[in-house]
Specification:
Elements: E1 6-12, H1 15-26, E2 31-32, H2 42-54, E3 73-77, E4 80-86, H3 93-109, E5 129-137, H4 142-155, E6 166-170, E7 173-180, H5 189-198, H6 202-211, E8 223-228, E9 231-236, H7 244-253, H8 262-268, H9 274-279, H10 281-291
Helix pairs in contact: 1-8, 6-7
InterPro entries: DUF3226
Pfam family, one: DUF3226
């Protein structure tokens, strides 16, 4: 790869989403970027470096030492680079807007990245073609999630209205939104994954579902040890949550990658094979959504 003319930026809610997109893109022969920051195109590398410098580490809590401006994954193929961001939920909207605005500044300034901040990915003299893609779970209302994306565009003063699985070209960039859902336009990414991963592995998944029968509602609440007046006590959280499909992924994943998270299971287990991805209408729809140009 000698130049980068196209940068596609995928904004996802969580790490399961980026792992899923990573798995799909690997079937399209995208390579994983594993090199140093200084070998990235300047518009990407400098953004990551600068935001690390600007972090007021002395004000951060020890369990929040992460940088939302660093993509979970960076992939490339020919003249295109794809950034997969896990941006979190609505509480991280400011980080999302800041990330988008950075790349919009590059579009507006027509930045030429000749010195490149490294030699591996030289930016050609052409203007970079940007594509900004948003991925959300439908949950109980697919249209509500589309409205959420359009609200983000409104905050950026972009006069466009997006729809599901549509990429719109505007000036020197494209915008698109994809909402993960089941056939009834509800649900989450896990609904798509579960059906595919269970196929040809029914016995394993059925046994994992049986294992979940051992769930005891009162033990779903997180169990903590607290200390007051120098006396230790046990306490459970008030909230309790059980995401059945996520739990099953966690169980079946241990049969292939011991101690692994669900992210590792999505990225590396054989529950999601090349054949399954290539023959899935839904997954090919997602792949085409990411890799094709805008339709307007």
């Amino acid at each position: 790869m000698n130049s980068v003319d196209k940068i596609t930026i995928c904004f996802c809610e969580g790490s399961h989403d980026t792992a899923f997109l990573y798995r799909i893109l690997k079937t399209k022969c995208y390579e994983t970027f594993k090199d140093s920051l200084y070998k990235l195109p300047k518009v990407i590398g400098d953004f990551i470096i600068q935001n690390n410098k600007n972090v007021e580490y002395n004000k951060l809590k020890i369990n929040s030492l992460t940088n939302e401006f660093v993509p979970n994954k960076i992939l490339y193929k020919e003249d295109e680079m794809i950034l997969l961001y896990s941006m979190g939920g609505d509480t991280k909207k400011d980080k999302l807007l800041k990330t988008i605005q950075h790349y919009f500044e590059d579009i507006e300034s027509k930045l030429k990245d000749g010195d490149n901040n490294g030699k591996a990915f030289d930016i050609s003299q052409k203007t970079i073609e940007y594509k900004f893609l948003f991925f959300y779970d439908a949950d109980n209302d697919k249209q509500k999630q589309i409205d959420k994306v359009n609200s983000i565009l409104n905050d950026l003063n972009i006069n466009l209205t997006l729809a599901h699985n549509k990429v719109i070209k505007k000036d020197d960039y494209c915008l698109g939104a994809y909402i993960f859902s089941n056939d009834e336009d509800k649900g989450t990414l896990e609904d798509i994954l579960f059906e595919l991963m269970k196929k040809d592995n029914e016995e394993i998944f059925n046994e994992a579902e049986k294992y979940l029968n051992f769930v005891q509602d009162d033990r779903l609440k997180r169990f903590k040890i607290k200390c007051k007046d120098n006396v230790s006590t046990e306490k459970r959280d008030e909230k309790q949550k059980l995401y059945e499909k996520k739990s099953i992924f966690g169980i079946v994943g241990q049969l292939q990658n011991s101690g692994a998270s669900n992210v590792v299971t999505i990225e590396y287990s054989d529950y999601l094979t090349l054949e399954k991805i290539n023959t899935s209408k839904k997954l090919q729809e997602i792949a085409n959504f990411i890799t094709t140009k805008g339709n307007i």
